Structure formats: structure tokens, C-alpha cells
Amino acid sequence: MLEKKKSDYMNVNYLNKEETIEWLMNEYGKSVVRLAFTFVKKEQLAEDIAQEVFIKCYQKLDTFRNESSYKTWIYSITVNLCKDKLRSWSFRNIILTEFFSNSKNNNTPESELMNLEMKRDLSINLLALPIKYREVIILYYYEELTYSQISDLLDISMQTLKSRLHRARLLLKKRIEGGRNDG
């Protein structure tokens, strides 16, 4: 068992390969599962993809050139593996849970139910967007990556990214408002 303090991980370059992978898994594991889930919409498959991501990281760790952050590198691997899965599988009619939430609220049961319902509706509407719009929303808002990081990760120009993000917001707003009018 690795018994190092978090402060010892500040410079990952001093760790051996196994320690580095362990640190990466502890640091980014939940985020990778969450990111994969936004693509494939199935929790078990997202966890399987996360395992594949870290296996690939282990295999390719020696080729990592520090041209980007570990986070960007890992997210890039995750996005590519998810896109591969999407090409080979059919994903439709998924009921979502509060998978995106990282925090617990100490509200009343009624307000928690309302929040859960709002998050569920937002998640359903978000995951109904075409992948090119969904991924930019998720990477920007949920994963809090910068425009530059997203542009590099998806290999698209900054202008394309801004355009997709704007279009994604409009589509999401339209879907949400459309749902209110119907209900």
C-alpha cells in the first residue's frame, strides 16, 4: 500500500510508474467515470471505460511528454475511448440518476426532491443533445476545462469551440423551455 501524503504527490515526476498511475486514479478516477458516463449513458460501461483509460495510461505513461497536463491527457484518452464505444454500440432511452452531482445539500426533503428533479431534467436534456454539443458543455461546465484545453482535447479551433458552445446553450435552453411548455 502506498503511504505517502498528498503533498508528496505535488511533483508526480518523482514517483515510479505504479505510484504515478495510483495517484492519477485517485486524482481523476471519479471525473473519468463521470465524463465517460456523459457519453455512454450507462454507469457500468462508464466504469469499464475508466478502467480502460487507466490501463492505457499505464501502457503509455513513458510516452507522456508533459506538453499538456495529466488531466487533459487523461480526458483526451477518455473522450477517444468513449467515441470508439459509441461507434460500436446503440445507446437510447436511458433513465438518469443524480450522477453529475458532487455535493450533498442539507435542505428540506421537498427542496431536495425539487433539486433532484431539476438536475434529472437538465441531465436528460443535456444527454439528448448531439454529441458535439454535449461534449463541449460537459467539458466546460462540469469538468471546468478552459477553452484552450477543450480546443486541444477535441482538436478543434477556438472559434469552432465557441460556436459549438453557443449553439449547445441555445439548444439546451430550447429543450428545457420546450419541456416546460409541454408539461
- Rg (CA only): 18 Å
Strand content: under 5%
| Average pLDDT metric | 78
| Low-pLDDT runs | 1-10, 89-105
Overall 3D form: globular
The chain-level structural class is: mainly alpha
Query: How many structural domains in the coordinates?
Result: 2
GO molecular function: DNA binding; sigma factor activity
Keywords: Sigma factor, Transcription, Transcription regulation
Family: Belongs to the sigma-70 factor family. ECF subfamily.
Protein name: RNA polymerase sigma-70 factor, ECF subfamily
Write a structural description.
This protein is mainly α. It folds into two domains: 13-90, RNA polymerase sigma factor, region 2, helix turn helix motif (Rna Polymerase Sigma Factor, Chain: A), CATH 1.10.1740; 108-183, Winged helix-like DNA-binding domain superfamily/Winged helix DNA-binding domain (Arc Repressor Mutant, subunit A, Orthogonal Bundle), CATH 1.10.10.10. Helix content is 68%, strand content 0%. The protein is built from seven helices and no strands. α1 crosses α3 (70-88) and α5 packs across α7 (158-182). The longest helix has 25 residues, at 158-182. Residues 1-10 and 89-105 have low confidence and may be disordered.
